[in-house]
Amino acid sequence: MSESRTFTAVPSPAPAEAPRYPVTDKVREALAITQRGVDELLPEAEWLNKLARAEATGQPLRIKLGLDPTAPDLHLGHTVVLNKMRQLQELGHQVIFLVGDFTSMIGDPSGRNATRPPLTAEQIKVNAETYYQQASLVLDPARTEIRYNSEWSDPLGARGMIQLAAKYTVARMMERDDFTKRYAAGTPISVHEFLYPLMQGYDSVALKSDLELGGTDQKFNLLMGRHLQAEYGQEPQCILTMPLLEGLDGVEKMSKSKNNYVGITEPANTMFAKILSISDVQMWKWYELLSFRSSTEIAQLKAEVDGGRNPKDAKVLLAKEITARFHSVAAAEAAEADFNKRAAGGIPDDIPELSLGGGEMGIGALLKAAGLVASNSEGLRMVEQGGVKIDGGVVSDKGLKVQPGQFVLQVGKRKFARVTLS
Q: Which of 57, 157, 193, 365 has its CA 20 to 30 A from that of 76?
């Protein structure tokens, strides 16, 4: 990925009104690609004119996405915005992947009902390195500019921070929904939290951004960028918000803590099987937000399903596309074969093997020792629900004492272990 570290913030006179450029079919197509799956694109007329200008002048637009490296791993929910960046990158525009190494030390208050603990410099460094690698699985590394907001935030200093803070009022800051709720509830708000949206907005000034992307929870911060660019005499950026992706349960947003996620570094077989587990209804939102297929292709596929084609066919295509993106086409094909084998009651070739001593063992304790459940009680619940098999036979007795020998344990459809008990 290319990297640049030069910036000088010098306020300039307010720009004259932007000239209008011809809106061609190519520009309309670019607008349609921009709008696919978005929650809001503001202001749409300004973005249309930016697209028209880019085509007329051959000057690519600067598309900014800022991510604070608050955790080391990304899941498919994080890639919704990255996918949109990739689509804009394919249109020929300059994508800027901004690592919030400075803002991470403040802590983003978006959607929070309490002060967010800031990260240490060491945590930020470790997480940021992983972010680069994982974002590169979606973005084209050769056409991605990586920046760090410490480049311009550190040199700002106390004087610059005070001057920046003077460009926004406390009353406007308190219009932010999470601040309003916390203030009404008597929940403490630290002064440094007011600095977060200001610093994120200042990033747009530093990068001369034409468009900034984020989740729906980032709208206030994105609008701050427009405000500050105008204050610094720049043409204000447009903003684009993407919806939050529901996880495997189809209800809550995708989250590792809720265990309803698909991690982008998970094994291919696991990724494929998890995607196959989503509902037929939810599948179409995943297509819209995660697939690189065209809207026309997806509409055709949906029409075929509505006309009687098995929805599983469409889900398999989605699972293979996403698995291939983060692994390979061969890995996706192998994952499909593995899934079909499991679904047919077969035992996959590649399963964990372990040896356990101590003689006969209760089924709950055995499942826990084999790493197939978290506790004895969970193992017994799985037996009760008919979800446990030994060598393909369903176990129905919770009091079963398993005798020494070699056998294959199975829990649910996806968990196996070949055990030698002695």
A: 193
